[in-house]
Amino acid sequence: MRASMWWQLLLSMLALVSSCAARRIQAEATIELPPPLQWQFYQNSCPDAEKYVRDQVEFYWKQDRTLAPKLIRIVYSDCFVKGCDASVLLDGPDSEKKAPQNAAFLGFTLEVIDKIKEVLEQHCPGVVSCADIINLAARDAVVLAGGTSYPVPTGRRDGNSSTAKSVDLPLQAVSWGSVVPYFQEKGLDVQDLTTLLGGHSLGKTGCQFVADRLYNFNKTGKPDPSVDPSFLSQLREQCPPNSTNQVYLNPDSGSSYSLGKTFYSRVLNHRAVLGIDQQIAANNDSYQIAQRYDASFEDFKEMFGRSMTRLGLVKLLPGDQGEVRKNCRVVNAK
Ligand SMILES: *[C@@H]1O[C@H](CO)[C@@H](O)[C@H](O)[C@H]1NC(C)=O
Ligand SMILES: *[C@@H]1O[C@H](CO)[C@@H](O)[C@H](O)[C@H]1NC(C)=O
Ligand SMILES: *[C@@H]1O[C@H](CO)[C@@H](O)[C@H](O)[C@H]1NC(C)=O
Ligand SMILES: *[C@@H]1O[C@H](CO)[C@@H](O)[C@H](O)[C@H]1NC(C)=O
What we know:
mainly alpha; Peroxidase, domain 1; binds 2-acetamido-2-deoxy-beta-D-glucopyranose; 2 domains; 13 helices; Peroxidase, domain 2
C-alpha cells in the first residue's frame, strides 16, 4: 500500500514537471521571434546568464519587495518608447529617466540592474545586453510576485541614445480609445493591454494620478461616475484634494506586493483605482477578458506571461546595429 502511494505521488510529480515543460515548449512554439532574438541566445556564450540575473533579483527582492512591480514596469517604459533597447537606463541631462512618467520607480531599480550587470561582466564580459537584462529580471520579478514563469527570448541589442522628449507614455486621464491604437502601433492588441493592466494588481501610484477621478472627472467638477460610491469615499480619504500621498493600485494586495487574485473582480465591481483600469469594464472585448480572468487566476497568470514575452519583442534593433553596453548607464566608448 505504502509503496504504491509513493509510486503514485512520484508519477503525479513527474506528470506535473512534464506538463510545465510541455507548456513552455508550446509557448515558445506559438511565438514568432523577430531577429536577432533566439530562445537561449546565451546558451554557449554565457550559459548561466539567466541564473546570475535570477540570483541578484532574488537577493534584492528579499530586501525590498517593491522591486517586483518596478522591474515589471521598466520593461514597458523601455520597450514602448524606442523599442526594447535599454534606452531607459542611459544617464544624461535629458535622458528618458528624466521624464515625469519614469521618475517614481527608477532609483533602486537602476541600482539593482547595475549590480546584475556587474555580476554578468565578471562572468561573461561584454556578452549580455542591458535590454536582455531588463526582460530577464522582470520575468524573475513576476515569478517572485507569485506569477507564472514564461519564456524570455534573448539577443536584444542596446541602443545609443535616450531623450526625455521621446517618452510618450500616457500620464493620466487617458481614454481607452487612445490607448488601444497606442498598443496596436507596437504590435500588441486589446488582449495584451487588458492583461498587462493586470500588473496593477501590485504596487502603488501617486494620488495625483487618481485625483481627477475623485474630484474633477474629465473637467466636469464631479467624480468619475464609474467609481463605486463606497470606494469613492475610501479613496477620497486617502487622497484629499491636491495630495501627493501614495495609494496601493490594488488595496487588497497592498503591502504584500504580490499579484492579487482580485484585480479583475475589482474592475468588474467598479472598484479599480486607476481610470484606465476601470475602462476595462466599459468595453465589450476587454470586459469579456476581465470576466475570464476573474473566473481563473491561473489563466490570467499564464496570459500575463505571454503578454510580457510579447512586450519584450517590440521594435528591436537589428543584429547589425546597436551594441552590448559594458555599463548600462553609458554608451560604450568608441
Ligand atoms: C470627456 O469629455 C469629452 C467631451 O465631452 C468626451 O468626448 C470624452 O469621451 C470624455 N472622456 C471620458 C473618459 O469620459
Ligand atoms: C488645489 O490646487 C489648486 C490649484 O493649484 C487650488 O486652486 C486649490 O485651491 C487647491 N485645493 C485645496 C483644497 O488646497
Ligand atoms: C456591447 O454589447 C452590447 C450588447 O451585446 C451592445 O449593445 C453594445 O453596443 C456593445 N458595445 C460596444 C462598444 O461594442
Ligand atoms: C546609433 O545607433 C543608430 C541605430 O543603430 C545608428 O544608425 C547610428 O549610427 C549610431 N550612432 C552612433 C554615434 O554610434
